[in-house]
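Entry 14. Two folds queued back to back today. First construct below, sequence then structure tokens.
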Amino acid sequence: TDAAENLLCQVAGHKLVRLFPPSVGPYVYQDFVDQKTGNGSVNAFSPVDCEDVETQKRAFPLFKKARESEIQTVLGPGETLFVPRGWWHYVRALEPSFSVNFWF
């Protein structure tokens, strides 16, 4: 998660984006980092690999509840996605790609 609003702007290539609302924090086994980012915010991270759920079932049994709220899309060149503050997100390039983020 980011503690700031985020615009993810895709310049080239395609990226898979998975979004989860802030309410799934307990189901993604949230971990807060004590380190502040460049914009002064504190971000949270998840140890769950949302693309390898089957092999992690034992370690993260509650993640299946987070999947119930998942929003998934593919972002292409020229497209921008708004990621609200506090939303969990996972992004993976589907091919060589380039994107720019704006946090505010």
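Second construct, same run, same settings:
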Amino acid sequence: MRADTVAYGVCATAAFLSAAITLMVFFFMAALGLPVVRDGQLLQVLLGPWSPDHGSYGIRPMILGTLYIAALALLIAIPVSLGCAAFITVTAPRGLARMLHGLIQFMTGIPTVIYGFVGIFLLVPFVRESSGQGAGLAILTAGIMLSVLVAPTMILFFADGLARVPASYCLAVTAMGGTPVQRLVYVMLPQAWRSILAGLALGFGRAMGDTMIALMLAGNAVARPDSLLDAARTLTAHIALIIAADFDSLEFRTLFICGLTLYSATTLAVLAMRSLAAKGIKAL
């Protein structure tokens, strides 16, 4: 049997298993969350407040907290990641670029709980003293530290996309008297947009799915947040914190609605990125 045939079979099997496991997870959550839909309580769970003492198990505050923290993290991480990727691939000396690239790769392997501890001892006091209100456990704190978590992954995707731009394109810009910034803006970024979209999708998914940073730094308040300095609870932190003794209770079933909401949000983000990529390919 030829080596390429074996390699193709291994890759095809791995792809099939990955897709099958993903679908199995989805159907598992859907099956356990189905009683909520069947009883006509889905909208109440999605849009209502969380108040178990009053028989209300709505997850709207957690949905808003998740979106606010993830959006803030991306707003901070995107310009930082693009800037770092551009510096590594365009302006930095080769030795420095190699060292920074290795450092960023190392950062992607740091456990999330380490970022959480750093945030508790450094970022929380800073936010508390700077704002003059609250305990420093807020959306702003979690969003800043979450941006530090997702930025290395996005930097690697962005830098890889920029590095794949054909050298002939860059040499042509240089021959015409273009500056490194012009080469980046007018040639490299338009050519690397597919990798940039992939990095954005992965960064969004990781920001939505992180548990420890939100659990340790966001304050875990179940009320609807009104500002960046308010405490909030994310869906992932909510799943980690809620312990229901009765597995047939609505409180327990809502955990799977939380999982389905995260699953759906991530899936929609990936589909949106792929749609943009497909439109870009057609335009080319």
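Quick look at the second one. The radius of gyration is 22 Å. The CA atoms of residues 117 and 216 lie 8 Å apart.
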